[in-house]
Please model this.
Amino acid sequence: MEEKPRNKLKGQPGRSKDAKRFILPLLALVFLCVIIGRLLYLMKTHDELYRQYTFRVTRELVKTVTEAKTLLEEKGDKAFPLLDKMKSDQLGLYLYVYRLSDALCLYHGENPALVGTRLDKFTDQLGKPLHKLISREIKNPRNRYGWIHYYWNRPHGLFLEWKSSCNLEARLPDGTECYVGGGHYGIGSELEFARIAVIDAEHLLKTHGKGALVELLTPAGPYFFYDTAVFLLHENGQSIIDPVFKKLYERNLLEFKDAVGHYPFKNLLQKLKTETEAQVVLYARSPLSMNDQKKIIYARRCMMDGKPVIVGTVINAPRSAWQQ
Amino acid sequence: MASSKPDTELIYGQNDVPPVPHLILLSLQQGMLLILGAMLPVLLVKEIGGSTEMAIRMVSLTMIISGVGTIMQALRLGWIGSGYLCPNIGGPSYLALSFTAAIQGGLPLMQGMLVFAGFVEMFLSRVVSRLRSLFPPLVVGMTVMMVGVSIIPMAFANFCGSPAAGDEVIWQDIVVGCVTLMVIVGCNVWGKGQVKLYCLLIGVFVGWGVALFISPFDPVQYQMMSEVPVFAIPFTGLSQFRLAFDWSLVLPFMVISICGSLKSFGNLLAAQKITRPDLEEPDMKPLAGGLMADGLSTAMAGLIGAIAVDTSSSNVGLAAATRAVSRWIGVCMGVMYILAGCFPVVAAAIALVPSSVMGAAIIFAICFMILTGVNEMLSVPLDQRKIAVAGIAIIFGLSTGFVPELFAQLPSFLQPLFSNPLAATTILGIVLYQIFHIDVNLAAWLKKK
Model:
């Protein structure tokens, strides 16, 4: 193709045309610099990653509660107005602060009328004593963010739902021991929740032996959450606490075949021969969908009264919204 | 720049070679849209509990095979390829069944079944030219339209930030998605010259910029950059080529291969319609070549351990929007993808584009796909028969998306046919068109006799 002669016209109009040609690339360059600058700033200033959590809402929750703890420890009750600002109607997130010694409500982001009332007698619909559970979990080294799960209805809601709350111990400048927390409904597919429950159950079995079974079985305890519970197997696949019936029930799970013809418990036990913890996938048939429902079994090998056993739990696997 | 006559409406016609800077930018723009597809292996590896290394290798292999497939498609070497800008992508059509095969028999079974599915598509490509009567403009239009409709769930979920089911949708993602969409549409509608040509690229960068200022920063994503190797040849040895076969999966894979072929057929038809708008009826030869290239890419993907690749609807839509349909853009994009497959860090960097930005870009692209289909459907006068064919096929097709639980009760061998709007609409459209025109066809046949 023949090249057109450039700058035919001499003088001002030509220069103006030339200048115009550089406006867009210049703007693009400025924009790119701003973006790279912002990115570098964010990379330098970001907080802890919280990589163990799948859901963004969980990471946000942990981040918010952690920030609230710092504020409380720095400013004491002067931090309460600041906690109001951390409330998110969009995420349905609010914070609360209770005194550790007597469960007295010091601050409640959603319902200020609760301030001055006590939580110590309060239980959820399954009978879980919330203050007792929180007091235990904030000191539990295996549960770094004091997660507890309870069955409750949303504010002004009618139906019961599972809610998970993250709790951290805080000491106010005046020496008051308290805990600050916040919760969210329906984040049950976090593998971290399964991991916490199973590791804790392992510890309980190691220290209490068979005596731990009562606590593992109670729906009011920390091992029953999101309609799932901790199960217990012998190394030969014989169940002690059945994963489906959630009670003491003996049957051999080695021959259990899932919806796609896999033997998940057989695979699990195979993996646990060489490893202390393992996770396998299980597919359950769903009558309302062409796709089978994916679940994850997370389990660990441990000792109960000197005998090796397998402790684990089954949770729904997280999926993308469009895969649903 | 040499331009063929029918390309007068286009900025870069089928055989035009854009100047190098434009070629690179247009290829990058097309490549951006494919990133979501290239990241699909991560879902598969997560599903089967594989390692991060496995996920990186599979993404790299999928990028390489997408690149090879796109080049084959664009170059049209003998009877392989269409000669159109119709890029290949990690195909969502095969994803669910690939999950099943990988779960049942590991990656060798998935690979073996993909090779089989590729051969089925290659066989179909040889007979498709004899089936022209099955694809009147009405059916072609419906197929093209439904190709766009079937990717709406993925596009919209991404527009909303691609949350995991149960996670919250945050307003920042919606704002970023809306800004991106508005910038792309604004540049495309009111922009001139290069602004119009690079509307998607401009929109993506503006959207990304806005996201960095308003969206909660997710350092986990950016942290991945340091974990990905800069350069890696994704071949681990002969064990990678291990194939397995299971007779119980033959029928589902055959059905999904037919559905995948129909989708690719729709994409190729749309690409033909955009590239050669003067054609009054489909030119079946390049379409057959396109299907052959698509089948060969799927078989090759299976052989080397990538996920199945498929032609990309959104890229055809983008070509329609920018009116740059040069097949050399496809060749350049293919080379870029092959290189990116060997430099995982590049792929990881592109994958940092926020989901809502990608969702907006895909929504923009499928607008053109859907409307190209509607235009094609309306290019012939609609009589009562055609209205019945189109209406029934579209209603039944869309109902697979609206009430999937009802279709879940079908016998399992029929389920793949009614698993998404595209397959159901196309198959019903073809069958109903023939049934409702049986008297007309019979009369024509008798007259001919």
Summary: DSSP finds seven helices and eleven strands in chain A. The helical segments of chain A are 12-45, 56-75, 80-85, 130-137, 191-208, 213-217, 264-272. Residues 12-45 of chain A form the longest helix (34 residues). Chain A touches chain B through 46 residues (CB under 8 Å).
